[in-house]
Design goal:
The complex is a heterodimer of chains A (304) and B (284).
Chain A lengths: L1 H28 L3 H5 L6 H11 L5 H13 L13 H36 L4 H15 L2 H15 L12 H30 L2 H8 L4 H38 L5 H10 L3 H29 L6
Helix pairs in contact in A: 1-12, 5-6, 5-8, 5-10, 5-12, 6-8, 7-8, 8-10, 10-11, 10-12, 11-12
Chain B lengths: L1 H12 L3 H15 L1 H4 L36 H37 L1 H16 L2 H11 L4 H27 L3 H8 L4 H37 L11 H8 L8 H28 L7
Helix pairs in contact in B: 2-4, 2-11, 4-5, 4-7, 4-9, 5-7, 6-7, 7-9, 8-9, 9-10, 9-11, 10-11
Classes of the chains: A mainly alpha (304), B mainly alpha (284).
Chain lengths: 304, 284
C-alpha cells in the first residue's frame, strides 16, 4: 500500500513539474517573457530590472530553476491588469469553482444513477432505449451551447432564474445542470454495463432464490457491487467537470478560476493565467491521486 | 441459418440511414462550401442586420437569419463545416497515428517502454487541455495548428490505451507464437498479424472521436483559443451571439444546433459501427 501511495505521489508531482515546464517553455518560445509579464507601458528601466531579477540573460535551464525557486516560495508574479499578486487573485476563486463542480457532480449522479440501473434492469426495452438515447444526446450536446439555450429559456423568456453571476441557490441551478448533464452520459453507459455484469453473477441468483424482493436485489445487492468501477470513473469525472467548467463559467459569468483564466487570456495577463493553469493541474492531479489510493484501499488486487 | 439471417436482418433494419446521410452530407458540404453558400459568409450588410430566421418571421433570403453585421448565418454555418471537419480529420490523423504506433510498441514490447507510454498516457488524459489551449492562445497566438496540436495531445493517449489493450489480448494467440517460432521479426509480426486484427477497432474509435473533436474545437473557439475571426467557425459564431442573446438568439442558437446535429450523427454512426464491427468494444 505504501508503495502504491509513493509511486502515485511521484507520478502526481512529475505531472505538475512537466506542466510547469511546458508553460514555462511556451512563455519563452513566444519572444521575451518580459513582453508577456510586464505591462505594455513598462519603462526600459523596469524591463532591465525584470530581466535582471528573473535572470532572463542567463541560460534557460537556470531560468527555470529561478522560476521554481520563486514558485516554491509562493511568488508567481503580479497581475498585469490589477497589479495584485497572482496568488491572491487565483486563490480567491478556487472555492467557487470547486463548489460549482461539486454541485454539477451531484446533479450528474441524480440523473445517471437511476437511468443506468433502469437501463440494465430493463435491458433492450423502453427504459434502456431511453437511457441510451439520453446518453447519446448528452455526448452530442456542446455544453456551452446548452448553457446559452437554458439562459435563453429560463432567464430571458421565462425570467425564472438569473442568467449569470453568483448569489443565492438560484444561481447554481442552470450552471450545475449543464455541468451535470455534460458528464452524465459516460456514467450512465458505464453503470449500465457494470450492472449488466453484476446482475448475471451467482450471488444475485442466490439472493433471488432466497426469495428477496426484486427491488432489494437490484438497488441494494447489485447496485452496491456495480458501483465499484463507477466510483473510480466518478473520481476521474470530477476532474473532468472541474476542467470543463472553464467554458461553463464563461457562459454564466461565474466568477471562478475558469472565468479568471479566460479573462487573463483576453487581457494577456500571463502571470495570472500561468498560475491558474498550475492550480487547475494541481487540483486534478490531486483528485486522481486520491482516487487511485482509495481504489487501492477498496480493491487489494491493484496494490502493486 | 434462420438465426443468422434474422440477425442480419435486424442489423440491416438498424442501419442508421438518416445519420449516415448526415455524415455524407457534412463531408460534401465541407468540400463544396464555397459553391453551396448562398451568400458571402464575410459579406457585411448594414441594411440586413439581425434579421430573424424564416420560421421566426424572417424571409427565405436569409433562412437562418443574419448576425449583428448583417452576415448570413446559414452561409457562415456552411463555411464553418470546413474548420470543424478539418480540425477533426487532422486531429484524428495526427493523434491516431502517434497513439496507434505507441500503443503497438507498448503492448508488444512490454517492460519499461510499456510503463512509460501508459503512465504518460494517464498524465495526458488528466491534463486540462482547455487551459493549455488558453496558454497557447496567449503565447503563440490562436490558430488551426494550435487547436489540432492540443486535441492530438489528448487523443493519442486514448488510441494508445485502446491499441495496447488489444495487442495484449492478441499477442499470446497461437498464430502469433507460430509466426515468432517461424523466425518473423517483431516489426513484421506487428505490421502483418497484429495491425490487421485491430483495424476494426481503430475505425470505430476514429468515428467516435469525430464528435468529440468537433465539440472541443468549438469550445476552444468559443473561448477565443481556436481559429480566430473573421473565419466563420461554429464555436466562434456562438460566442459572437452571446451578447445579443436577448434580441437575436438565433446568432448563437443556430450554429450550436448545427454542432448538435452533426455530432449526434457521427456518434450514432459510430455506435452502429461498433455494434457491427466490434461488439466486444465498450466504453470508448
Amino acid at each position: 500500500m505504501t508503495r502504491l501511495i509513493l509511486s502515485r505521489l511521484v507520478q502526481a508531482l512529475a505531472t505538475l513539474l512537466v506542466t510547469s515546464l511546458i508553460v514555462f517553455v511556451l512563455a519563452r518560445s513566444s519572444g521575451s517573457p518580459a513582453d508577456l509579464v510586464l505591462p505594455t507601458d513598462a519603462t526600459p528601466a523596469e524591463r532591465a530590472l525584470y530581466i535582471e531579477r528573473m535572470g532572463l540573460d542567463r541560460p534557460i535551464a537556470e531560468q527555470y530553476l529561478i522560476f521554481l525557486r520563486d514558485a516554491v516560495q509562493g511568488d508567481f508574479g503580479v497581475s498585469i491588469r490589477t497589479g495584485a499578486p497572482a496568488t491572491e487573485l487565483v486563490f480567491d476563486r478556487v472555492g467557487r469553482t470547486l463548489l460549482l463542480a461539486t454541485a454539477g457532480l451531484a446533479v450528474a449522479l441524480l440523473i445517471s444513477l437511476p437511468l443506468g440501473v433502469m437501463a440494465a434492469v430493463h435491458r433492450g426495452r423502453g427504459w434502456d432505449r431511453f437511457s441510451m438515447g439520453f446518453a447519446l444526446l448528452g455526448q452530442s450536446t456542446p455544453a456551452f451551447w446548452l448553457g446559452i439555450v437554458l439562459i435563453l429559456i429560463f432567464a430571458v423568456w421565462l425570467r425564472w432564474l438569473p442568467s449569470s453571476g453568483v448569489g443565492g441557490w438560484q444561481h447554481y441551478v442552470l450552471p450545475s445542470l449543464v455541468l451535470g448533464w455534460s458528464i452524465s452520459a459516460g456514467i450512465v453507459r458505464l453503470l449500465r454495463s457494470s450492472m449488466l455484469e453484476v446482475l448475471d453473477a451467482e450471488f444475485i441468483k442466490l439472493a433471488r432464490t432466497k426469495g428477496l424482493r426484486e427491488p432489494v436485489v437490484v438497488w441494494k445487492h447489485a447496485l452496491r457491487n456495480a458501483l465499484i468501477p463507477v466510483v473510480t470513473f466518478i473520481g476521474f469525472m470530477y476532474g473532468v467537470i472541474i476542467a470543463s467548467g472553464v467554458v461553463i463559467e464563461v457562459v454564466f459569468g461565474w466568477p471562478g478560476l475558469g472565468y479568471l483564466a479566460y479573462e487573463s487570456t483576453l487581457w494577456r495577463d500571463f502571470p495570472v493565467l500561468q498560475l491558474s493553469v498550475l492550480v487547475y493541474t494541481a487540483i486534478i492531479v490531486g483528485i486522481n491521486f486520491l482516487v487511485d489510493v482509495s481504489y487501492g484501499l477498496i480493491d487489494p488486487r491493484i496494490r502493486t | 441459418m434462420t438465426m443468422t439471417s434474422t440477425r442480419r436482418f435486424a442489423r440491416l433494419r438498424r442501419l442508421p440511414l438518416l445519420p449516415l446521410a448526415m455524415v455524407a452530407a457534412t463531408v460534401l458540404v465541407a468540400l463544396f462550401a464555397d459553391v453551396l453558400a448562398p451568400h458571402d459568409p464575410l459579406g457585411i450588410n448594414p441594411a440586413a442586420r439581425q434579421m430573424p430566421p424564416v420560421f421566426a418571421g424572417g424571409s427565405w433570403e436569409h433562412p437562418l437569419g443574419t448576425d449583428r453585421l448583417g452576415r448570413d448565418v446559414f452561409s457562415r454555418i456552411v463555411l464553418g463545416t470546413q474548420i470543424s471537419l478539418g480540425v477533426a480529420v487532422a486531429t484524428i490523423l495526427l493523434g491516431g497515428l502517434i497513439g496507434t504506433v505507441l500503443g503497438l510498441v507498448a503492448g508488444y514490447r512490454g517492460g519499461w517502454i510499456d510503463a512509460l507510454v501508459m503512465r504518460s498516457a494517464d498524465g495526458f488524459l488528466a491534463f486540462p487541455s482547455i487551459l493549455l489551449a488558453l496558454v497557447l492562445a496567449v503565447t503563440v497566438g490562436p490558430s488551426f495548428t494550435v487547436v489540432v496540436v492540443v486535441l492530438a495531445l489528448v487523443l493519442w493517449a486514448r488510441f494508445a490505451r485502446l491499441v495496447r489493450g488489444e495487442v495484449l489480448a492478441i499477442k499470446e494467440r497461437d498464430y502469433i507464437l507460430l509466426a515468432r517460432v517461424a523466425g518473423a521479426g517483431g516489426a513484421y509480426i506487428v505490421w502483418r498479424h497484429i495491425l490487421p486484427n485491430i483495424l476494426n477497432t481503430l475505425v470505430v474509435l476514429c468515428t467516435l472521436q469525430v464528435g468529440w473533436a468537433i465539440i472541443v474545437e468549438a469550445s476552444l473557439t468559443f473561448l477565443g483559443a481556436g481559429v480566430p475571426p473573421p473565419t466563420p467557425t461554429w464555436g466562434g459564431m456562438v460566442a459572437e451571439g452571446l451578447d445579443y442573446i436577448e434580441s437575436a438568439w438565433w446568432i448563437s442558437v443556430m450554429p450550436g444546433l448545427a454542432i448538435l446535429l452533426v455530432v449526434f450523427s457521427y456518434n450514432t454512426v459510430g455506435d452502429w459501427l461498433r455494434d457491427v464491427l466490434d461488439p466486444q468494444l465498450r466504453n470508448v
